[in-house]
Structure formats: C-alpha cells, structure tokens
Write a structure and sequence with these properties.
The protein is an all-alpha fold and 126 residues long. The protein has 5 helices and no strands. The longest helix is centred in the C-terminal third of the chain and has 37 residues. The model has no long low-confidence stretch (mean pLDDT 85).
Length: 126
C-alpha cells in the first residue's frame, strides 16, 4: 500500500489526492449541518449507539456518499491502469475508504456537534 500511495502521489492524478478528500469534507460539512438542523445526533455517535437501526443508518450514510465514493474507486482504477498497467480492486477500495469515506464521516459528525454547541450557545444568550 505504501508503494501504491507513493506512485499515486508522484504520477498522473496527484491533484485528486487533494481534491477527493476536500470534496468529501465539503459533503460532510453540508450533511452534518443538515443533520443538526433536523435534530439528529452526530452520525458516528448515532451509528454506534443505536442498536436496532444501525444497518439502516449505515445504509443511509453510504447512500449519501455513494457518488463521491464511486468516483474515487473508478478514478483509482483508471490511474492504476495508467501508472501500473494492472488494476487491483482492493487498492481502489482502500483508497476510497481512506481518502473519501473516513474524512466524510468524521467531518459530518464533528460538524453536527459543533453546530449543535453553537446553536445552544446562541440560544442561551437570547
């Protein structure tokens, strides 16, 4: 994996190592704010604490990030073919998880938490 990341960061497609995490972070912020406005708990907290609805929450979260995740997998496969002339689906899935899914879910949860605190603070001031 280390060699794969090195080749990806020094070859064609280097910009996507920056753009894809930024894009998933932007989606995470938007969805975290939406969750807070709808009165939902932070996504990761809700995912791990709700026993009966865990799979539904996971499926809903994956549906919301499906397009950026799919783009990351396809781009990874294309760049693998361009750089190495071989395609490894496992590396593409690991890349998408590491650079798209994790930043998205962390940002979504943190944004919800920060927005809820700010909303409470402004509400207490008035």
């Amino acid at each position: 994996m280390r060699q794969y990341l090195f080749e990806m960061s020094h070859g064609p497609g280097t910009l996507r190592l920056l753009l894809q995490p930024l894009m998933s972070t932007a989606f995470g912020i938007l969805h975290g704010l939406r969750d807070q406005h709808q009165g939902r708990r932070p996504y990761l907290w809700d995912l791990f604490s709700s026993r009966g609805e865990r799979m539904q929450r996971l499926a809903a979260g994956l549906r919301e990030i499906l397009i950026p995740l799919g783009i990351a997998v396809v781009a990874s496969l294309v760049f693998q073919y361009v750089i190495r002339s071989h395609v490894y689906l496992v590396f593409a899935l690991l890349y998408a998880t590491l650079f798209v899914a994790i930043p998205y879910f962390l940002t979504r949860s943190l944004t919800n938490r920060i927005a809820a605190r700010r909303w409470r603070a402004t509400r207490e001031e008035t």
